[in-house]
Specification:
about 160 residues; alpha+beta; four-stranded antiparallel sheet
Length: about 160
């Protein structure tokens, strides 16, 4: 039998910077005090929507200067995670070639839209036998932008 914390985690949307293969963190060189760094991690992870995430990013900019790319990546990953939750997509990953989406049983994404996307651009999109949706990424440097574009199409 799963522990309560594991049971709770089953319902969470999973997306990490590791799955997208990007550096997403608050570097020690940006915020040297570990207490402040941890505090901002907590605030970012507790943010309920993109507006709250942007407010924390703006505070970082005001207090510590222009955030490095790793911080911007972290902000974008958190925004993507909130979008995934809103759409009922339980997992998003990047396998080096494709963004791979796994849908929750009660997803808000219209399956007909997925079928139309695959029919219109079969070299870019495909549905797999295990009910995953794959979207080709041409340049791995644009994986976050491609993920945002894909989620906008599915919204």
């Amino acid at each position: 039998r799963a522990s309560p914390s594991l049971r709770c985690r089953r319902n969470l949307t999973f997306l990490s910077a590791n799955l997208l293969k990007i550096a997403a963190l608050i570097p020690e060189s940006y915020i040297t005090d570990p207490r402040f760094r941890v505090g901002f991690y907590r605030r970012l992870s507790a943010a309920r929507d993109e507006t709250e995430i942007a407010a924390v990013r703006d505070e970082l900019r005001d207090r510590f200067g222009v955030p490095p790319s790793e911080v911007e990546n972290l902000v974008e990953v958190l925004k993507l995670r909130r979008t995934l939750q809103r759409l009922g997509i339980s997992d998003m990953g990047f396998d080096g070639k494709d963004l791979v989406l796994t849908f929750a049983p009660k997803t808000k994404v219209n399956p007909e839209r997925l079928v139309r996307m695959v029919a219109k651009e079969p070299k870019k999109y495909r549905l797999t036998p295990d009910d995953r949706f794959r979207s080709r990424v041409v340049d791995r440097e644009t994986v976050v932008a491609d993920a945002k574009t894909l989620l906008a199409l599915l919204s």
